[in-house]
Amino acid sequence: MNKEISYSLADTVLMKKPHACKTNDWEVLRIGADIRLKCMGCGHIVMMPRSKFTHNLKKVLTKANDPVNTKNELYVPKKEIARPDVNQENN
Hints:
Elements: E1 12-15, E2 25-30, E3 34-39, E4 45-49, H1 50-56, E5 57-62
């Protein structure tokens, strides 16, 4: 059974196995071939391949810019996450 869970930038997700700080909650900081995640318990940042991330993803806890996220001190709002400017012209 292959279920498709939709996630996006700045969402808080629940992973199958806990981090060393005993927290399963992670914030998605980057989406691409690799996914960058930040632990919501200790602030540790890790990168993993998308295939491993989708395999270990249990569910999406909160969507981006949800008021529940602002209560967590380690949460970074979606507008403050650095994003590359791909439409910039090279002069």
